Known about the structure:
Bound molecules: alpha-D-glucopyranose
Number of helices: 20
Radius of gyration: 23 Å
Amino acid sequence: VALPLDLRRPRRVPVAWAAAWIVTLVVGPACERHEASVPAAVTLLVPASERPFWAPVTAAFEAAHPGTRVVLREGPNSTDLRENLYTAALLAEDDSLDLVYMDVTWTAKLAAAGWLVPLDERLPPEAASAFLPAAVEAGRVHGRLYRIPLRTDIGLLYYRRDLLEAAGLAPPRTAAELLEAARRLQAPPQLWGFVWQGSQYEGLVCFYLEVLRGHGGFWIDPRTLEVGLDRPEAAAALEFLLRCRREGVSPPGVTTYKEEESRRLFQDGRSVFLRNWAYVWGLSQREDSPVRGKVGVVPMVHGPGGESGATLGGWGLGISRFSRDPDLAAAFLLHAASLESQRALCRPTGFAPARLDAYRDPELLAANPFLAELARFQRHAVARPAIPRYALASDILQRRLSAALSGLEPPERALASAARETRRLLGGETR
Ligand code: GLC
């Protein structure tokens, strides 16, 4: 990963700063006045695409806390790349990132490494009960709280209601029904059947995981650390993804798509089905969206006799152990988790909030009525295993799934290797 220069090495005092120190010592009072005017600052790294939505949140904080500044830094959009950035910075004990904007899967690793400040005192149980219980739980490691949730996420199957209705088709419930409907309605390359996240990254694991649940299988049992990737259910789930490609229902490029590539195709009216997260609903219903008023949402399809799975996602904030101002960082964190900030972040983006009261908020519901429906998808939720070496386990699965999808490895061999490597990895894992 190419790191920005200031993340690559631990802090050193640059020559200009050293000179400023000398001037301070010599000139004294004049510089003290200058020092006093330097605002206390905390820094937060967010995906570049989210910056415009964070700006009002930081501005409101600065207005309420005169003399403070929240510095927003932009990072890559993909969760894997941002996790690498944070890991490199924290490993170097870099004190230039105060807040850690964390995916639901990062907490165990960052907390086990001792890189996060416990937040139990900052968010006592009465305050924690204002948030979705599963979202709070995702921030706890061995009973201590390290991450406060800002938004939650769930994997969904979007479909073109207008096209299915015109053809007299009900929304699909099984994988076979989806393939059948896609084949009937598609007209590639103008209109594809089904787009999803097939690139080699975390999003592919999220999609596979819900299809796997739908075929009765599992990846890693978090209680026993048993691995289910070389079982027939795992092969059946991968076979569904392969059929989408083989039968021309998904475009050849699907193996390079992340969330936004697949959303754009669907929102441009170029796919009948889309697997994606909750944010897509709001964007697809904007006034300039070609599919406004034409979209339906159902849980992901499943295998014969199976039950749908919906991967749980979500984002929250923690405080770096190396922050020079953990109190200011905590004040900002609580501000970011307030209802007012949830409005600012969720209204324009379609993100699903983590606060319970946000789901009853007239302003948010008016902007995104779909929020009222999200609860019915929660019962299909599948959590990714909360293990410190999650990133490594995910990397194994990403590589093997990707090799099978691009035809570089036969699917049975890919899954057998993934199972073997995952067992070896988990051999050293302690619960
Ligand atoms: C979404 C989810 C996150 C997941 C990521 C995968 O951002 O909220 O939990 O890891 O997508 O791409």
